[in-house]
Amino acid sequence: MQGQNASNTKIKQDNDTVLQKVFYFHASKTDYALDTLYRLSNNAIDIHYYDPMLNPKNSYYQYLSLMGTPALDLIYNSDDLLNYQRQPNNYQPYVFTKDNVKYFQNKKAYSAFTYDAGTDAQQYFDVIFARNLYKGLNLQTEYSVNYADGNLNNSQVMNQFFNIGVNYISDKGRYRSNAAFIHSRAYILENGGILNDTMFVNSEYSSMQTYPTYLNSGWSKWKTNEFYFNQSVRIAKDSTLNLGAFVHSVSYEKYARLYTDENKTSLDSLATTLQRNSLYWTNVTKPLTLFPIRLGLNYDVITYRDSLEKKHFNVLSPEARVGFKDFVELRFIQSFSDNLYDEDKQFDVVFSHLFALRSKKDSSLILNTYLKAQVQNKQADYIYSHYLTDSLAWDYNNTGKTKTKSISFGIEFRKNITLELSYFDIKDRYYFDENLVLNKGNAKLYQVNLKNDFNIHRFSFRGLLSFQKVSDEDVVRLPLLSLKQSVFYNFALMKGKLPMQVGLDINYNTSYYADKYNTSTGMFVRQNSMKIGNHVYADVFVTMRVQRFTMFASFLHVSSFLQNHDYFNSPLYPHNGFAFRYGISWKFLD
Q1: What are the pLDDT digits (tens) for 419-446?
Q2: How far is C-alpha 19 from the chain's CA centre?
Q3: pTM of the prediction?
Q4: Element (DSSP H or E) covering residue 125
Q5: Residue 141, CB half-sphere, CA atoms under 13 Å: how many?
Q6: CB under 8 Å to 221, separation ≥6 — which residues?
Q7: Which residues are CB-contacts of 444 (< 8 A; sequence separation ≥ 6)?
């Protein structure tokens, strides 16, 4: 979705060359002054990933059976220092953000329509539209909906994600600006899962809808409203002396979760409001700048609200990035606050090309190695220190910083296979047990990630293999081994005018005590009574494309017939059984 790799700019010849004239960019503040445009791909293979969590290019997730339900990222990473949300974002695979919204720069109007559904009563709809309003001025909007009736009684998902934005690039590219409004709403009828997982294991009821659940009347609504405005001005662009550019960004973000059930007399709520003003200067106005420098200042005003009270914080965060060519970059950020976030800080160093081999014929990269290291002290999400509603209340004034040190070494083979070895030293990490009692602990985590995206003759392989070993599994709950792999065969009919793929998607993780979803807070918390995993989820699919029209058909969880009746993705939430899905995608350029 983000399309940040340089390989995205190398578009293979396609039957529909018209779409190669559609360009877009992202609004990252660190490279916003660059004239970096990406071409839109017309690859058909991704259409059958009706749920972004299933795409092998994305991370590995634990979720609650249904498309659009809360999800927990199972590939461990350090948190963003400037992330001040009230609680973890459980809809990370779905939502639009400032970084993944596509801002189009094309002369003709572009639109795309995607729809899929199936026998599992889950539907997905997405429409995107972009057009040029005036020379250099473009408009784009995208609207996504996923809907599911739910496998269990009293469960339903009705999610909507929307963004609209404009962007402007002056004739010579000296001035660039963009603005976007993003709205998200995830509405779920909560049931808390089945009363006892052994009922499903023993197949005591004939239909999933007949299983008794924890809650008969409960719902949660997760809502966001975000507005961004970014602009950059190059200083004397036509001068032989690189004077750099100023980048200014203003944003307003509001996140809220509402929850109620039959046991509550009022509505529980959690909300975060963030107002940010950022100003940067950078000399990175073209690729491969000899001494890249980025100096910036972030000023944040944060408001936290629960059902009964609210608190305000002011945070000032200077940030500096310096480096040498495309070899090394150092980053330091320090936060100064009137209270909670005082002395949050982070230091990073990245060596991009420790050792590299290039082809003698075309100088393309054959092998590349890199090294990343980070030291971070960061306050845990605010919900760990304070929460006050009619039904739940705690106030921990002694919560401190979570201290994380990490180092990663990576090897890239032609941008097609990446092997990364990482080590994390984690101290004072906070977590809740299933009784919502706060704990903290220390752990060392060893991680190996292998990503692949390559072709052998007519066969293609895409996948993610992750090995993660934790010294204390109470601090971080992760499966020892996680696998997402797609294998498909490429061929064409009608003299090459009908390209097709037939393939297999496989998802697997070893068994572990997976975190339990807590409906009241919307968090995943520790549990020690049920192990999840050690089952293969296999889907068979076929895709085909006629110019700009793409379609797919797939059989989901075909391996369910070969397994015992005990497949779970989260405690008390049985995974979907066998189902059939189909869908279409149609792109237009007028």
Answers
A1: 999 999 999 999 999 999 999 999 999 9
A2: 26
A3: 0.91
A4: strand 122-134
A5: 5
A6: 185, 186, 187, 188, 257, 258, 259
A7: 423, 424, 425, 426, 470, 471
